[in-house]
């Protein structure tokens, strides 16, 4: 299975744990086989693509996807970890809207992307994608502060933003690099030290 | 375990025992009978699920699911509308839930019922929430004490040794708290409370001496014994993804705990994909002879025969089959001379709670996903402790945890600093929610629909069940009490809720009653050994047998009822009285 060649070091480490602990029960060979079949098959999963904004998506047009890609890169930009656009959150959002959301909810996203474009044209006389990163950031800050936007548009944006954040932290990079992923914690500890820079767990019981 | 050798389809053999159902109680009945040397046939309406092999989603990250663990909305609309109302239903677990398209039921006008299904080998033992508490002497006395429902024909002391027996085998983690309202289990070490919970426990003990807060007891191998490890079960890894199945065998399920023992005896046969249509009844001898089965796949019919039948098909599954088993002697359902079969349906009412933020403890976090929470046992457990305006009481579940991106996603923020803040730890949050007792009421009935049938030709169940004023008042009170308790200990920004109008009965997935036990055969279906008053070789040991719901999660009690009933039945068979 080709997916098993693309694992992050953390993931491989987690899988070793899984195999090791399982091996105590059912023997190493069986555990390895199980971890391979049950652990890494991603044939059906939404697969991030480098070119999601290159053509029309399932719900969004190519133009809307370009706007969305840059919204993703603005809300969650590249830092010491990749941006939301780097992990194809825009492609994921288009997919998720088509699979799990109503036509009304799809329209919320279309409307706010159109509104962002309209505001960009009005203020800067340029499409959102042609703005500098600072201008893009300011425009979305203005959106949340209701400068040049109305409250109903903020509601639309919040819906999109939550989908974006969900998409990022449930992506492999978001869950395992931006956060810390514990596939097999090995037990529960009620108190471990934390500092302001401690990252939260990306491995959750419910998403 | 060579499972393949024990699966059968057609047979002419007369078994000693047929067990209908393979979940928590069916698995126990199979283990107990086969270990006593009885040739046993377990019948399961769903497909075969083998331990480890058939847990296809186990160990997967959210990115490995097409919609990141969410379920396609068209699929929900067409096939999982009811099932998706369960907290545990998502794309990683949906293969262990029933398909609503094939499993229709109806509700009386103005009522609603949430029937969550688990039709596969292992039943809902694969997906249960694993909370495990003994019922107390107060619980068994409750109906008698306040006159609601009929008196249980047994008391705590009758069940006590059987609780110990099932606990030692299943593995129940918990503290020994020494509380009369929540008898201790023969427990494995408890899971740890986090520091916030420990502090709240200390404060509650001072302010509310009658409301002790304990760590939730659950069917997990916190520290397995040698016995568990010898049988291929190891320590709970604190993944808390249990409903996907657990290859560590760390929580109790049919697959991890009872089936391997039954299979090892050589006395077990299993028929899967076999939907029991009705019981075969012989009027001349007043005995059941076996069951009629419809094949799940090709709808063909076949029959299985045995000297004794144990109904372990889940509360509603069992009652549906019994109502559908009619004869001249029992025109309204087998063993139903009392007329109460289908009546007194109960659930638990989980429809109130409160939560808020706890200041401080910012230098602490937790590691691992604890598969249990904290628990405040029912503190209104006898009439002298009842509130004035309603009867019985509620337990409280809950816990403390630190927030993460899921909560922060609602906030304002754009850019690198916002991204960083999403990855950092949020404030501590502490919440409590109700686990309320639901009264047994004759009006809360499930019956066979006069005309509607499912694809196998089985009459559909028709529900006429509602919350009574008692449950409504209890939930209002619980929300206020929770809010008051949190205020007293300094929790901030408290939100309380009452959701009785939103979550109909069934939502706690604790269906109970409908074939209740009792001393008087005129007002009950079963005697004190879960044996039908009317028919000596027919037993019901699942949740259908309950006289009252109490407040504790029911599974541990129906495990104990089952092994006690098997012990009784086996002795009766040896004495040739059955």
UniProtKB/TrEMBL annotation, chain A:
Instruction: Identify the keywords attached in UniProt to this record, alphabetized.
Output: Oxidoreductase
Query: What's the Enzyme Commission number for this chain?
Result: 1.-.-.-
Does Oxidoreductase count among this protein's keywords? yes
Q: What is this protein called?
A: Gluconate 2-dehydrogenase subunit 3 family protein
Q: What is the lineage of its organism?
A: Bacteria, Pseudomonadati, Pseudomonadota, Gammaproteobacteria, Alteromonadales
Q: Which domain of life is it from?
A: Bacteria
Keyword set includes Methyltransferase: no
What InterPro entries does the record point to?
Answer: Gluconate_2DH_su3, TAT_signal
* A single MF term (Gene Ontology): oxidoreductase activity
Species, as recorded: Alteromonas arenosi
The record's PROSITE patterns line, in alphabetical order, gives:
TAT
Pfam families reported for this sequence: Gluconate_2-dh3
Q: Broadest EC class?
A: oxidoreductase
UniProtKB/TrEMBL annotation, chain B:
Q: Which InterPro entries match?
A: FAD/NAD-bd_sf (IPR036188), GMC_OxRdtase_N (IPR000172), GMC_OxRtase_C (IPR007867), P2Ox-like (IPR051473)
* Gene3D superfamilies per record: FAD/NAD(P)-binding domain
Q: Does the keyword Flavoprotein apply?
A: yes
Residue intervals of the Glucose-methanol-choline oxidoreductase C-terminal domain: 440-561
All copies of the Glucose-methanol-choline oxidoreductase N-terminal domain together span 84-348
- List, alphabetically, the Pfam families matched: GMC_oxred_C, GMC_oxred_N
Give the record's keywords alphabetically: FAD, Flavoprotein, Oxidoreductase
Q: Has the keyword Flavoprotein been applied to this entry?
A: yes
Cofactors per UniProt? FAD
State the family it belongs to.
Answer: Belongs to the GMC oxidoreductase family.
Protein's name according to its UniProt entry: GMC family oxidoreductase
Species: Alteromonas arenosi
Q: What does the record give as the organism's lineage?
A: Bacteria, Pseudomonadati, Pseudomonadota, Gammaproteobacteria, Alteromonadales
């Amino acid at each position: 299975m080709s997916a098993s060649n693309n694992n992050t070091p953390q993931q491989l480490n987690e899988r070793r744990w899984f195999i090791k602990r399982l091996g105590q029960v059912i023997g190493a060979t069986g555990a390895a086989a199980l971890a391979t079949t049950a652990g890494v098959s991603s044939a059906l999963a939404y697969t991030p693509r480098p070119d999601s904004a290159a053509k029309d998506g399932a719900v969004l047009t190519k133009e809307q996807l370009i706007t969305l890609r840059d919204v993703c890169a603005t809300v969650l930009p590249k830092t010491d970890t990749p941006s939301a656009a780097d992990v194809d959150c825009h492609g994921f959002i288009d997919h998720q809207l088509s699979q799990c959301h109503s036509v009304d909810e799809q329209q919320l996203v279309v409307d706010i992307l159109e509104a962002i474009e309209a505001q960009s044209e009005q203020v800067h006389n340029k499409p959102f994608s042609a703005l500098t990163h600072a201008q893009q950031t300011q425009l979305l800050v203005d959106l949340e502060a209701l400068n040049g936007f109305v409250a109903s548009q903020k509601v639309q944006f919040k819906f999109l933003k939550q989908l974006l954040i969900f998409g990022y932290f449930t992506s492999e990079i978001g869950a395992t690099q931006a956060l810390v992923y514990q596939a097999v914690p090995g037990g529960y500890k009620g108190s471990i030290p934390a500092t302001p820079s401690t990252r939260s767990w990306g491995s959750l019981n419910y998403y | 375990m060579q499972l393949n050798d024990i699966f059968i389809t057609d047979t002419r053999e007369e078994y000693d025992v047929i067990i209908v159902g393979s979940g928590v109680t069916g698995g126990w009945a199979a283990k107990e009978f086969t270990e006593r040397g009885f040739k046993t046939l377990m019948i399961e309406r769903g497909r075969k699920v083998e331990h480890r092999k058939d847990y296809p989603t186990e160990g997967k990250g959210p990115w490995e699911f097409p919609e990141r663990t969410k379920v396609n909305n068209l699929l929900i609309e067409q096939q999982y509308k009811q099932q998706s109302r369960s907290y545990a239903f998502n794309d990683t677990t949906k293969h262990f839930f029933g398909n609503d398209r094939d499993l229709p039921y109806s509700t009386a006008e103005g009522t609603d019922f949430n029937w969550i299904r688990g039709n596969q080998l292992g039943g809902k033992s694969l997906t249960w929430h694993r909370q495990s508490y003994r019922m107390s002497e107060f619980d068994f006395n409750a109906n008698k004490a306040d006159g609601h429902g009929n008196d249980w024909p047994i008391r705590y002391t009758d069940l006590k040794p059987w609780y110990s027996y099932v606990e030692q085998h299943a593995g129940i983690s918990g503290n020994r708290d020494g509380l009369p309202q929540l008898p201790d289990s023969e427990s494995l070490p408890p899971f740890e409370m986090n520091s916030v919970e420990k502090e709240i426990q200390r404060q509650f003990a001072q302010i509310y001496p009658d409301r002790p807060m304990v760590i939730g007891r659950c069917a997990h191998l916190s520290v397995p014994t040698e016995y568990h490890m010898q049988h291929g079960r190891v320590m709970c890894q604190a993944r808390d993804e249990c409903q996907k199945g657990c290859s560590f065998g760390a929580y109790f399920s049919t697959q991890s705990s009872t089936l391997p023992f039954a299979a090892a005896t050589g006395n077990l046969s299993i028929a899967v994909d076999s939907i029991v249509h009705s019981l075969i009844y012989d009027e001349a001898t007043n005995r059941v002879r076996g069951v009629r089965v419809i094949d799940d796949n090709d709808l063909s019919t076949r029959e299985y025969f045995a000297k004794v039948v144990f109904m372990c098909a889940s509360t509603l599954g069992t009652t549906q089959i019994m109502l559908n088993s009619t004869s001249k002697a029992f025109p309204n359902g087998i063993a139903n001379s009392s007329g109460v079969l289908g009546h007194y349906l109960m659930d638990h009412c989980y429809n109130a709670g409160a939560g808020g933020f706890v200041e401080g403890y910012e230098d602490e976090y937790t590691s691992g996903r604890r598969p249990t929470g904290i628990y405040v046992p029912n503190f209104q457990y006898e009439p002298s402790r009842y509130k004035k305006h309603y009867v019985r009481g509620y337990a409280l579940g809950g816990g403390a945890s630190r927030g993460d991106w899921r909560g922060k996603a609602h906030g304002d923020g754009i850019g690198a600093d916002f991204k960083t803040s999403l990855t950092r730890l949020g404030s501590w949050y502490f919440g409590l929610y109700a686990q309320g007792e639901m009264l047994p009421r004759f009006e809360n009935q499930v019956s066979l629909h006069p005309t509607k049938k499912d694809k196998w030709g089985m009459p559909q169940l028709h529900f006429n069940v509602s919350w009574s004023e008692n449950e409504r008042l209890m939930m209002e009170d619980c929300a206020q009490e929770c809010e008051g308790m949190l205020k007293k200990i300094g929790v901030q920004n408290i939100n309380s809720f009452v959701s009785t109008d939103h979550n109909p009965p069934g939502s706690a997935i604790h269906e109970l009653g409908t074939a209740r036990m009792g001393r008087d055969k005129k007002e009950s279906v079963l005697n004190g050994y879960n044996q039908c008053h009317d028919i000596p070789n027919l037993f019901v040991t699942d949740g259908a047998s309950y006289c009252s719901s109490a407040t504790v999660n029911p599974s541990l009690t129906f495990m104990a009822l089952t092994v006690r009933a098997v012990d009784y039945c086996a002795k009766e068979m040896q004495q040739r009285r059955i």
